[in-house]
Amino acid sequence: MRISLVFGSSLLLAMLGAGTTVQAQQTQTSASSNDEPSYRKEFTYGINFNTRGGLIGGASVRSTRLLNQDWLRFWSIEAVEIKHPKEQKVGTQYGGTIVYGKSNYMFAIRPSVGIQRVIFRKAPDSGVQVNGLLSGGPSIGLVMPYYISYDYSDRTSNPTAPATDIRNEQYDPMIHRNEGAIVDRAPLFSGVGETKALIGAHIRGALSFEYGRYRDAVAGVEVGALVEAYSKAPPIIRVAGVSDESLNDRFLPSVYLTVYLGSRN
């Protein structure tokens, strides 16, 4: 009887110990699974504001893949307009508006690849997550002529005669010397068929602040700095008697902010 009692007590203690061990392992597994992201892919799209653009600089899309709990890899493509820092709108005698000295629009398409590091992870359904990003890639600059409407009417004998010869042409400071004959800016895509490409490269570093209450949705803002360089300076602004290289830069650093939304799966 004593032997049976001892054997039964030992078996009960062994079973309790095993149960406690299993429960502890399950608790650790549950805790670690809660810390791990519940998604493998992320797709976002956003609107860009930058110091080289206008009111809205451009737009971007990004596809991100999870590598592990803290590291992610992504590719993205961004399209923005680049403006010269000295661009200034002025009125014409005809009631129109032009950007004085502007000879070309400049648009940039930036495909890039990069890596993202989670600096501070938010709770599963609330809070703010902070990420660090580094990316780079080629830059494709699209230089499109800036067209104006110019009055070629001959008013030698009658200065007040109505305009009879108005032509839409790319602004050229060597040809359009008479500022008073500039009527207005021509329609935006007047010179699209004469667009030329410039090849360059860019690199950027940023911090993103991600908000969201749902595991399958993402929203946030990204702030960062970008350095971009082209094979030659895009001739955005031109002035008679001054070289394009001295008026325009081939190195185009900027600071930007992107507001983005997206989904996860």
Distinctive features:
single chain; mainly beta; 2 helices; 14% helix; disordered N terminus
> In percent, how helical is the residue content?
10-25%
Total beta strands: 13
Given the structure, what is the number of helices? 2
Largest sheet: 8 strands, antiparallel, barrel
Which parts are unreliable, with pLDDT below 50 for 5 consecutive residues or more?
A: 1-34
Number of domains: 2
* First-residue to last-residue Cα separation: 62 Å
Task: Give the secondary structure arrangement, pairings included.
Blueprint: H1 2-35, E1 41-50, E2 58-66, E3 71-82, E4 89-91, E5 97-99, E6 104-120, E7 128-145, E8 147-151, E9 166-170, E10 182-185, E11 196-211, E12 217-230, H2 244-247, E13 254-264
Antiparallel strand pairs: 1-2, 1-13, 2-3, 3-6, 4-5, 6-7, 7-11, 8-9, 8-10, 11-12, 12-13
Organism: Hymenobacter perfusus
Keywords: Signal
Signal peptide: 1-24
Structural overview:
Residues 1-24 form the signal peptide. Keywords: Signal. With 265 residues, the protein is mainly β. It has helices at 2-35, 244-247, and strands at 41-50, 58-66, 71-82, 89-91, 97-99, 104-120, 128-145, 147-151, 166-170, 182-185, 196-211, 217-230, 254-264. The chain has two domains: 1-35; 39-264, Porin, CATH 2.40.160. 14% of the residues lie in helices and 48% in strands. Strand 6 and strand 7 (128-145) form a beta hairpin. It is elongated and about 85 Å long.
